[in-house]
Automatic annotation (TrEMBL):
This is NmrA-like domain-containing protein. GO terms for cellular component: nucleus. Residues 54-64 have a biased composition (Basic and acidic residues). Keywords: NADP. Belongs to the NmrA-type oxidoreductase family. Pfam families: NmrA. Residues 2-53 form the NmrA-like domain. The keyword Isomerase does not apply. Residues 37-48 have a biased composition (Polar residues). InterPro entries: NAD(P)-bd_dom_sf, NmrA-like, NmrA-like_oxidored. It comes from Aspergillus avenaceus. It comes from the Eukaryota.
Length: 260
């Protein structure tokens, strides 16, 4: 039986990966700082081997024969380190870069009482292309697809690849309410809503360099050998209480603003 070890198995990405591989009858080892959490306990009940990890960053695996590594390319420094310093390990490592979360509050509309409609106030242009993924639901399927690919594959994983204008149109259709796109710069979002600059660095980078700017050799889901079947962004949104999605997004953004 094949074995997969997942670091951070109780988060959105890790949980999706764990449940996908459990459903495929792999031996699943889940590293988590809190094995007594409800999520960790649920994984254990599903058959995962839940292991407590310390507060320090887990070590990368040794360069063992038969070992394959699937790393989150969102942590760019990890990819750079593996490629520059761990040559043997790099030869058997694949990377996954997730698209923007469907639940990312920066790309959700706000109600504007003055104009009586929802507005997407974003620091990117209407034509800017954005990969969108429901990380909790879809990450596992893409990692499973990487198993069938050659090492050193660099996958941009997404459920839909849309322009910002298309994202606004989908929200309007799925929610049944009128919404519009308002292009603003990062300085205005910082001044009006107190969004920290470190949070706004991401959209600013995307606007200037594109979502995968600087990362070479990226492949898209359509380039993979197998077909990855996930819900489209529109189907995902239609199945949810969009007002609750907005509420959770506001709460998440407020927590970031207050922490900053």
């Amino acid at each position: 039986m094949k074995t997969i070890t997942i670091i951070g198995a109780t988060g959105n990405q890790g949980l999706s990966v764990a449940q996908t591989f459990l459903s495929q009858n792999w031996t699943v080892r889940c590293l988590t700082r809190n094995p007594s959490s409800p999520t960790a306990q649920s994984l254990a009940q599903q058959g995962a081997n839940v292991i407590k990890s310390g507060p320090e960053r887990p070590r990368l695996p040794e360069d063992r024969d038969g070992c394959r590594v699937y790393a989150d390319a969102g942590a760019a420094e990890v990819m750079e380190y593996i490629e520059a310093e761990r040559g043997e390990l790099a030869a058997k490592t694949s990377y996954i870069m997730l698209g923007a979360y469907a639940t990312n509050p920066l790309f959700m509309p706000r109600w504007n009482g003055e104009v009586r409609r929802y507005q997407f106030m974003v620091p990117v242009k209407r034509g800017q292309m954005m990969p969108v993924i429901a990380a909790r639901e879809s990450t596992g399927a893409f990692v499973a697809a990487l198993v069938g690919e050659e090492p050193r594959t660099r996958l941009l994983a997404y459920d839909a690849y849309l322009s910002m204008g298309e994202i606004v149109d989908i929200w309007s259709r799925a929610a049944g309410v009128e919404a519009e796109l308002v292009e603003v710069d990062c300085a205005e979002l910082n001044r009006r809503f107190g969004i920290p600059w470190e949070v706004l660095d991401g959209p600013a980078f995307i606007e200037e360099f594109g979502y995968t700017g600087g990362v070479e050799g990226i492949v898209h889901p359509s380039d993979l050998r197998g077909v990855v079947r996930t819900e489209s962004f529109e189907d995902w949104l239609r199945k949810r209480d969009w007002e609750e999605v907005l509420k959770e997004g506001r709460e998440e953004l407020e927590s970031v603003v207050h922490a900053g």
